[in-house]
Automatic annotation (TrEMBL):
Residues in Choice-of-anchor A domain copies: 55-307
InterPro entries: Choice_anch_A (IPR026588), DUF11_rpt (IPR047589), OmcB-like_DUF11 (IPR001434)
Pfam families referenced in this protein's UniProt entry, alphabetically: DUF11, pAdhesive_15
Gene3D superfamilies: 2.60.40.3080
Protein known as: Choice-of-anchor A family protein
Domain (DUF11): residue spans on this chain: 329-411
Length: 829
């Protein structure tokens, strides 16, 4: 199956497959750990041919390299090298999806290797050492190498040559982008655009002319670069926006193809957008914000990040690929019958497993581990339930077919509108601040990731520059390209040393505890932060620009962050208006770049427990300081201090044009800023600190719903083309209230009593009646607990003792002292 037959897949269905190649010693599977965005059907191609997994053996690999590599910073995806790989503590797989299989290869090094922090998946390295597995159970070292690089690159060179021979369909003309001279690549097809820049035009790009891509989003765009060497020295713009991760997410089909090149060099002033298909070339990245897309090369050298943006699993590409043996590909979707159930009510999840491959899928199993907050009631055949995990052995699914199952659950009630019986003084919180030293050699760029304890909340994070070797440069030569929250409990920053000497810096974060401490009866309340960031992407022209983000009502902004497409702009202001729930960033740029800013929204109210919540109490401390006209190179320290009963959680500032900040130091009670001024004139600056009170406010009732995410998975015993589409989630918002006291589970009969669980959103008492066909079988009372289940034990009547054992179901009515009565049919047994 050599040549294009191992590379290209075509079918009217979406047909992602694993590529197999025959080596001299036998059959070796080239395992693609992940392919691009999954669709149920192939695209409609007005030009080109609908093809699955067009990159063949390189499908799913962010870096796929035939021989050697030298790497710094990180790779967000999976990497594979057929030779030696030099790296130290290299982060790999930070953006691999949650459905990525633990045993799938994500790091493959055939030769000598460095050290790695692998976030998901497993590794093949020899010797089996130097890999820190962060993906949990099931990850580890692979016994055999899963890739035949010789055969794979033979196929990839054939692919590159084939695409390189395609006729140009788009135009390349001179124009402008971002106010600078640019080559404008214009294509109009929504399916496939092919460009063929001339040697003279490539010389312009080498000299610093910008790149402007004007093509429809989602279309395959192939730029066939001529010659044996290519250099790029400008910046990249896509439909008027400078290339960055959010822009390129809409353009996953951009491919820079180098069919004849043996040398490709990036001296780029912005992020690089698009895949690099250079199977014969040594690819060297001397300068770039980061690369966005897959790098397929003979060798690869870069101290910059490679960001994951995979070529689509189905795309319109040149040529007519031959038909090949099929492979199954199971995927799953999930939905809930209601988006906002009342606590105590019953609703259902529908799970649909589909086979979008072109071969039958065998041994298909759907699994759903029900999350806290819902209780199992029933499931359709062939599903079974044990300890809250529903397993459905659905067997074989033919190609193109699907099958569905339904799981019925009860939403556990949410405490709401209950009595205020808990003092805020009973609950306290203590923020903390992890930190790490960052040493940078001359010209080095590093990514640093810090995390809070599991379940806690990141409120702030940044770098502080401490030292620059004397005579090698200034503090301003140390560039921060990125400082942003990447998860509720995680921060990541990117810092670069543009001096000729050594730099010492510190990275820090501030963490809020995920729960309060204390409580009169030992109960705790959760602090609540939105999972999704509020973000905005904006082009920064030369000069001063402000951009503002706004949080929803009932929250305050925390964890301010930014991600620049290129170094250069200075963050001169980062200020919050907590009344308006806004955060305003100010940048001063000397050249056009793109920035993505972000904040996370923290609820000012805790979670509800026992019918009540608490308010978080904040103080915004503002300090206006005068920075003298001449400060030391490392700046002068200025402090902002919280009240005695509070801790600092987010630092902010607003600086005049001649004052720079080299960062700040978080201490529990204060924040110490280092400000630099060499203007010769004293300048007024503002530094401030958001302080969180050690204790919460007085308890109060709540009407805030609770979000519950339920994730299901599907697996098969047949070879599955794409392990990244094997999970799906459905989210519901369970509503609190005073009207719910609901029987749940089964009625258990023992002697003269019947017992059942009763869920309630309110405290108090309730009467319970068990009936069948109008006859009372049991009755009694139950004490209700807010937001939890209580076991009701009621006495059987004479009729109940005689009949209940013969019944499969009964009607149970619970009439709470607060709220309306609820009647449910409940199984007996």
């Amino acid at each position: 199956m050599g040549g294009l037959s191992a590379l290209l897949r075509a079918n009217t269905l979406r047909v992602p497959v694993l590529v197999s190649v025959i080596a001299a010693a036998g059959l070796v599977a080239v395992v693609a750990p992940l392919d691009g965005p999954a669709d149920a059907t192939s695209p409609t191609c007005s030009s080109g041919t609908a093809t699955s997994n067009a990159f063949g053996p390189a499908t799913g690999w962010t870096e796929f390299v035939e021989t050697d590599g030298t790497r710094g910073a990180e790779s967000e995806g999976a990497i594979a090298y057929g030779g030696n790989h030099a790296a130290s503590g290299f982060p790999v797989g930070t953006r691999l999806p949650s459905g990525f299989a633990a045993t799938s290869p994500a790091l493959v090094i055939a030769g000598t290797h460095g050290t790695y922090n692998l976030q998901k998946g497993s590794a093949y390295v020899t010797p089996a050492s130097g890999v820190n597995f962060n993906g949990g159970s099931g990850t580890g070292h692979l016994a055999t190498i899963p890739i035949n690089f010789t055969s794979a690159f033979s196929d990839l060179r054939t692919l590159s040559t084939s695409w390189g021979a395609a006729a140009a369909t788009g135009t390349v003309t001179s124009g402008t982008a971002g106010g600078n001279a640019a080559l404008v690549f214009t294509g109009t097809s929504t399916s496939l655009n092919v460009f063929a820049p001339s040697v003279a035009q490539m010389a312009l790009l080498a000299s610093g002319t910008h790149i402007s891509l004007v093509v429809p989003a989602g279309a395959t765009t192939i730029i066939n670069v001529p010659g044996t060497s290519a250099t790029f020295g400008g910046q990249m713009w896509v439909n008027g926006n400078q290339a960055n991760d959010s822009v390129m997410a809409s353009y996953p089909g951009v491919v820079w193809n180098f069919p004849d090149a043996t040398s490709v060099t990036l001296n780029f002033g912005s992020a690089w957008g698009g895949h690099i298909l250079a199977p014969k070339a040594a690819v060297t990245v001397n300068q770039v914000g980061h690369t966005i897309g897959q790098v397929i090369a003979k060798s690869f050298t870069s101290n910059f990040e490679t960001h994951q943006n995979l070529f689509p699993s189905d795309a319109c590409v040149p040529g007519t690929p031959p038909s090949t043996p099929g492979t199954s590909d199971v995927t799953i979707t999930k939905s809930a019958s209601t988006a906002s159930p009342m606590g105590g009510s019953t609703f259902s999840y529908t799970l649909t497993a589909s086979n979008v491959g072109n071969a039958d899928a065998t041994g298909v199993v759907i699994r759903d581990a029900l999350p806290a907050g819902v209780t199992f009631v029933s499931a359709t055949s062939p599903c079974t339930q044990a300890a809250g995990v529903v397993t459905c052995n659905v067997g074989t699914i033919a190609q193109g077919a699907s099958t569905s199952v339904t799981i019925t659950v009860t939403a556990d009630p949410i405490a709401g509108a209950g009595p205020v019986d808990d003092s805020g003084g009973n609950h306290w919180m203590t923020p903390y601040h992890p930190e790490a030293q960052v040493d940078l050699e001359a010209g080095q760029q590093r990514s640093v990731t810090l995390g809070c304890n599991a379940g806690d909340i990141l409120s702030d994070g940044d770098f502080r520059v401490d030292h620059v070797d004397q005579g090698t440069g200034a503090f301003s030569d140390v560039k921060v390209l990125s400082s942003q929250s990447t998860a509720v409990d995680t921060w990541k920053g990117v810092i670069r040393n543009d001096t000729t000497g050594r730099v010492q810096a510190k990275a820090f974060i501030v963490c809020l505890p995920g729960q309060t401490e204390g409580g009169a009866d030992g109960h705790r309340h959760n602090l609540l932060a939105d999972n999704a960031l509020v973000t905005g992407t904006q082009s920064l022209p030369v000069g001063h620009t402000e951009t503002t983000l706004t949080c929803r009502a009932g929250t305050v902004p925390i964890a301010p962050g930014y991600d620049l497409s290129a170094a250069g702009p200075v963050l001169s202001g980062s200020e919050a208006d907590y009344t308006a729930r806004t955060w305003t960033f100010s940048f001063d740029a000397t050249a056009p770049v793109t920035v993505t800013t972000s904040v996370r929204c923290l609820s000012t109210t805790t979670s509800a427990v026992a019918g009540h919540t608490h308010q978080l109490r904040f103080t915004h401390v503002v300090n206006h300081v005068s920075v003298p006209g001449s400060t030391p190179a490392e700046g002068t320290e200025y402090k902002v201090t919280c009240p005695d009963d509070a801790k600092g959680v987010v630092g902010t500032f607003d600086l005049p044009p001649t004052v720079r900040s080299w960062g700040n130091d978080p201490r529990l009670k204060e924040r110490a800023f280092r400000l630099f001024n060499q203007s010769g004139t004293a300048q007024d600056a503002t530094i401030d600190l958001l302080c969180l009170s050690d204790r919460v406010g007085t308890g109060m009732g709540t009407t805030v719903p609770v979000s519950i995410v339920n994730t299901a998975t599907v697996t098969s015993t047949s070879t599955d083309a794409n392990s990244a589409n094997n999970s799906a989630s459905a989210t519901v918002a369970v509503q609190p209230g005073s009207t719910t006291a609901t029987p749940s589970g089964r009625v258990a009969v023992s002697g003269s009593t019947a017992a059942m669980r009763v869920l309630s959103s309110m405290p108090g008492t309730g009467t319970v009646r068990v009936t069948s066909a109008g006859t009372v079988l049991a009755k009694g009372t139950v004490r209700l607990a807010a937001g939890s289940a209580t076991t009701a034990r009621v006495r059987l009547t004479k009729a109940g003792k005689a009949r209940i054992g013969t019944l499969s179901t009964v009607r149970v009515k619970v009439d709470p002292s607060r709220g309306k009565a609820v009647t449910r049919t409940v199984a007996v047994g």
